[in-house]
Amino acid sequence: MKKFLKFIVSSIVENPKEVEISETEGEGIIEYSIKAKPDDLKYVIGKSGRTINAIRTLARIKASKLQKRINININEQD
After folding, report:
1. Which of 17, 33, 47, 64 lies 20 to 30 A from 3 at CA?
2. What's the confidence (pLDDT) of residue 66?
3. pTM confidence score
4. CA geometry: angle 17, 21, 22, nearest 5 deg
């Protein structure tokens, strides 16, 4: 799943080498945190959050096939 998210996010940003995705596993849910440069966050979030919602939907579909639950957060790199 981490490679899947990295591929999607790296494909839409201007600085793909600066994208970091971390994974934290909790009780029945896996949390993914996407870190990108502040200038690239506008591409990841999209207009009115449409892009990140689409990424979350795709990731949840893939996770449901693996019978897992996931959550995706966005963080700004310093």
Report:
1. 47
2. 86
3. 0.86
4. 140
